[in-house]
Amino acid sequence: MPSFTASAPGKIILFGEHAVVYGQPAIAAPVAQVRATATVTPELRGNAGAVRILAPGIGLDRRLDELDSTHALVAAIEGVTASLGISRLPACTLKVTSTIPVASGLGSGAAVSVAVIRALAGFLGHPLPDEQVSALAFEVEKIHHGTPSGIDNTVVAYAKPVYFIKQQLIETFSISKPFTIVIGDTGIATPTKETVGDVHAGWQADPQRYETLFAAVGSITRSARQAIEQGRPDRLGPLMNESHALLVEMGVSSPELDKLVRAANEAGASGAKLSGGGRGGNMIALAAPEQAEQIAATLQAAGAVRMLVTEVKG
Ligand code: PMV
């Protein structure tokens, strides 16, 4: 059994975060510059069932049976073995590395799960289709997020831009004209579970107000899809600014995110918004390709700890 490596990209949510948990559509795209990678290597002299898990980035070096069953890596491994009907893994080492910042809205948890699921299934000689990889990663997302919509595992497993509605079949859609997005990281790690929980509490306290906000986000997302399909990404800027204002209303922005959004707009971006769970993590700005570096430099001056420039294409 040779060793097997798989990797999965990070992601950004362009439109629709939070509202997607309540049935509204969202648009997300992969970010290929950052990736999670998993390699499974056979341990020829080891006993069956002896599985070593190495994740140097988080200082993890343990045997599988030493980890709690609620650990995300254990859940990903058990998802694969259960769906392949394997009761005992051959002796092996699983090594996980990732260049995706954690808890920052770039989909690191989903990417690690997808890479591990693909690497293990491939190692076992049963590569799984994207749909099944995504479904298994969704089960792991529940550990990270509590009540995930499923958007992260979907965009990361398919590695394509998606128009996503919870519990519906995945829709990929055409991007008639690629566009450039600058990503700025506040450096503040905020678990998605926390902001999703706060939005839930807000919705319970004032359902009408939140339903109105979610519907407004949904309508922006539908307009954004039209603009993207019609080759008019220039129309996305104002839609991003409107989205950010609605996310502020939902209570998931922060002074740091607001500052980066303002700085991007002042530096000439056509629009900007927080991306993902919010409170900390990343924001995104729509930029003309020739302006992207300047906007990234402005974000750094305004406090961003990391910037990425990515092209969204079909
Ligand atoms: O993983 P994040 O931080 O990009 O957030 C995912 C998007 C949310 O809509 C906030 C949650 C979800 O499950 O869709």
How would you explain this protein's 3D organization?
The chain is of the alpha+beta class and 314 residues long. The chain folds into 2 domains: 4-171, 2-Layer Sandwich (Ribosomal Protein S5, domain 2); 175-312, GHMP kinase, C-terminal domain (Alpha-Beta Plaits). Helix content is 40%, strand content 24%. It has 9 helices and 11 strands. It has helices spanning 72-84, 108-123, 130-145, 151-158, 192-205, 207-229, 236-250, 255-266, 292-301; strands at residues 4-15, 26-42, 51-55, 60-63, 92-98, 162-164, 171-172, 179-185, 271-275, 282-287, 306-312. Strands 1, 2, 3, 4, 5, 6 and 7 form a 7-stranded mixed beta sheet that branches. A 4-stranded antiparallel beta sheet has the order 9-10-8-11. Strand 3 and strand 4 (60-63) form a beta hairpin. The longest helix has 23 residues, at 207-229. The two termini are 36 Å apart. The mean pLDDT is 95. Bound molecules: (3R)-3-hydroxy-3-methyl-5-(phosphonooxy)pentanoic acid (PMV).
Summarize the structure.
With 314 residues, the chain is α+β, with helices and mostly antiparallel strands.
**H/E topology pattern:** EEEEHEHHHEEEHHHHEEHE
Global Rg: 20 Å
Q: Output the number of helix runs.
A: 9
* Number of beta strands: 11
Helix content: 40-55%
**CATH topology (fold) name of the largest domain:** Ribosomal Protein S5, domain 2
Strand content: 15-25%
As residue ranges, the low-confidence spans are none
Bound molecules: (3R)-3-hydroxy-3-methyl-5-(phosphonooxy)pentanoic acid
* Head-to-tail CA distance between termini: 36 Å
Question: Biggest sheet: strands, sense, closure?
Answer: 7 strands, mixed
Indicate the mean pLDDT.
95
Tell me the CATH architecture of the largest domain.
2-Layer Sandwich
CATH class of the largest domain, named: Alpha Beta
